[in-house]
Amino acid sequence: MNRRERKKEETKSKLIREAMDLFKKKDFKNTTMEEIAEIADVSKGTLYNYFQDKESILSAYFQLLIQEKRLDIMEALEAQKTIEAKLDILLDINMKMLGDDLELLIIYFKHRLHTFFDNNPMDTPQHSVKEQLLLGIISKAQENKEIRDDIPAFVIAKTFQFLSLNYFITSVYDQHSGDNEILKKHLIEMFLKGTKV
């Protein structure tokens, strides 16, 4: 990475940090892009060169969190032998890592769901860190004949992402559904029964 690229990454990180501080102090809804630019000591134009809106800053923050923990996550996943155990670990890690601020997490998931349809997944080879990890789990399970290989790995991975979003929503909003561990077990079981060889 050359000096110019390093400077851009430093600016981007600073913008994310300053925005997250404002989101936590003031709350997301009442923070403006102008305030973020002001507190980060950049012009509004510079801020908009990096992020189109507050939601994209929030998305970048959560992606950064996952990226920073990538090696630890991969190590935890590699220690597991079965796809069931790996998916269980992945869901646990997501809830623990992303669950610190529920309001921001809900906004993040809404944004991710909304932007999911912006690009055709068939045309988009780039995936988030979390998607790459999940795709790796699915591909390996297909190689090991744990799950069927007649369906493309990315289709199975996207299906699991939607199921895990349902798990998150149920965990957050449905207090009558019982234990989250049972919900998680049911989600994984339902997913794997549909992908059995």
From TrEMBL:
A GO MF label: DNA binding
Domain of life: Bacteria
SUPFAM superfamilies: Homeodomain-like, Tetracyclin repressor-like, C-terminal domain
Coiled-coil ranges from the UniProt annotation: none
Domain HTH tetR-type: 9-69
Pfam family, one: TetR_N
Signal sequence annotation: none
PROSITE patterns on file: HTH_TETR_2
Annotated region of DNA binding: 32-51
KW Methyltransferase (keyword) present: no
Keywords associated with the record: DNA-binding
Protein name: Transcriptional regulator, TetR family
